[in-house]
Design brief:
The protein is of the alpha+beta class. It is built from seven helices and 24 strands.
Length: about 375
C-alpha cells in the first residue's frame, strides 16, 4: 500500500521528534532551531537600562560602615550594582561591574590582586590613598585611579571622614573568559608598606597627553597606562579649554595612556562628558556597554525612549546598542566607563547617530 502524503508527514513528524529527543539526550543542539536567537540583526543584551540613586545608596553604605568591618575575609565594603535583567548576577551590565565602595575614618582595606582590571572614580571625601604596586595615590573627588590587572592594591583612610567612590571592573568579561585569578597579599602585614613619597607615577608622567577629545579610535595596546592617577583639576582644565574653543552641547574627553595614546586599560575606556547648560546631545547607538556616574549638576538621559533623571552620585547603565542622548538645564559632568577597547580590538565596534531626538515613552522611577 502506498503511503498517503498525510501518513508520510505524520511519520516524518514522529521521526523528527525522536531525533530531537536523541540529540538532547547526548547534549547536542540543532542550530536550525536556534539560529534567530544566536545571530540577531543587532545586539540583544540581557541587561536593561537602569539607574541606582545616590539618595538610596549612600544611606545604605553608611549603615554598612557601621555594621560591616573591613578586614581580611571581607576585603572590601562594596555595594555592587545589580542589573535586574541579569538574573541576580551582581553586574551592572553583561561585561561591566559597577559599584559604590566606602571606607570609614582610619580604616584600611587589605591588599590583594586579581586579573580583572579596575578603576576608581572618587565621589566624596578626603584623606584616602590607594597603593598600587607600591605607589600610594592620594585620592580626591573627581580623581580617576587605576588598578591594572594583577597589580597589588589596598586602600587606606588616614583621615577622620568617610570616603565614597565608584568602582568599575571588567570582572564579568574576565569571568566569561574563565580568566579570573585572585591572590591575597603575602605580608608580612595585610597592606603594602607605605612609601616615603606618594604619587610616584604622577611625578614620572608630568602633564601632557592625558586625554583625547571625543574617544580613542587609534592605538590599541595590551599594556595599561603607567600613570595611575588622573587629577580632576587637570581634567576640569582640559574641559574648560575645549569648551572655550567650541559651542558643542557636550564636550567629551577620554583618558589615555600618556605613552601610547591608547585607552587607560586594555579592557576599559574611561571618559568624562560635560553637558552645557541647556545642552542636548544627538542620540547615538554604540556597540558595547556603558556605566555612567553623575558627578556635578543635574540632568537627564534618554535611553531607548525612557528618561532617566540624575544628580550627583547617581549611577546608570546604557546596555549595548541602546539609543542614548543627554540633556541638562545646568552645566553637568558625567563619568563614563565602557568596554569599547575590547570591541575595537576585536573589530566589532560600531556607532550610529540617529537623525532625530527620541520620543520619551516613560520616566524611570528609582527604587
Amino acid at each position: 500500500m502506498t503511503a498517503t502524503p498525510a501518513t508520510a508527514a505524520s511519520r516524518t513528524d514522529v521521526e523528527l521528534e525522536a531525533l530531537y529527543r536523541d540529540l538532547a539526550a547526548v547534549d547536542l543542539r540543532p542550530l536550525w532551531t536556534i539560529t534567530e536567537q544566536l545571530l540577531t540583526p543587532t545586539p540583544k543584551p540581557q541587561a536593561i537600562p537602569w539607574l541606582w540613586s545616590a539618595a538610596t545608596m549612600k544611606p545604605l553604605a553608611r549603615r554598612a560602615i557601621e555594621l560591616v568591618p573591613v578586614e581580611r575575609g571581607g576585603e572590601r565594603r562594596v555595594l555592587s550594582l545589580q542589573n535586574p535583567g541579569l538574573g541576580g548576577q551582581p553586574y551592572a551590565a553583561g561585561t561591566l561591574w559597577g559599584a559604590i565602595q566606602c571606607l570609614g575614618p582610619r580604616e584600611t582595606a587589605p591588599a590583594h590582586r586579581h586579573t580583572p582590571g579596575a578603576v576608581r572614580w572618587v565621589l566624596e571625601g578626603e584623606g584616602v590613598w590607594t597603593t598600587v604596586n607600591g605607589d600610594a595615590c592620594d585620592m580626591h573627588p573627581g580623581d580617576l585611579v587605576l588598578t591594572p590587572s594583577w597589580n597589588w592594591h589596598d586602600h587606606v583612610n588616614g583621615g577622620d571622614s568617610e570616603m565614597f567612590w565608584f568602582d568599575g571592573l571588567d570582572l564579568p568579561m574576565v569571568a566569561a573568559l574563565d580568566g579570573v585569578f585572585f591572590e591575597e597579599y603575602p605580608g608580612p602585614g595585610e597592606n603594602q608598606p607605605e612609601p616615603a613619597e606618594h604619587n610616584l607615577s604622577e611625578r614620572a608622567h608630568p602633564p601632557g597627553t592625558r586625554y583625547v577629545q571625543g574617544s580613542v579610535d587609534g592605538p590599541l595596546t595590551p599594556a595599561p597606562s603607567p600613570l595611575l592617577i588622573y587629577r580632576w583639576a587637570d581634567t576640569a582644565a582640559e574641559l574648560d579649554r575645549l569648551a572655550a574653543e567650541s559651542d558643542e552641547p557636550v564636550i567629551a574627553l577620554e583618558y589615555v595612556n600618556p605613552t601610547t595614546g591608547a585607552s587607560v586599560l586594555p579592557t576599559l575606556g574611561c571618559s568624562v562628558l560635560r553637558v552645557r547648560a541647556g545642552g542636548h546631545s544627538r542620540p547615538v547607538r554604540r556597540s558595547g556597554n556603558a556605566v555612567y556616574v553623575a558627578f556635578q549638576g543635574r540632568g537627564s538621559t534618554v535611553i531607548d525612549g525612557q528618561r532617566f533623571d540624575w544628580g550627583p552620585g547617581d549611577m546608570f547603565v546604557a546596555p549595548s546598542w541602546s539609543a542614548v542622548e543627554h540633556a541638562a538645564d545646568e552645566e553637568c559632568v558625567l563619568f563614563a566607563l565602557t568596554d569599547a577597547p575590547v570591541l575595537r580590538a576585536l573589530g566589532i565596534y560600531r556607532e550610529q547617530v540617529l537623525p532625530d531626538e527620541q520620543t520619551v515613552t516613560g520616566t524611570f522611577t528609582p527604587r
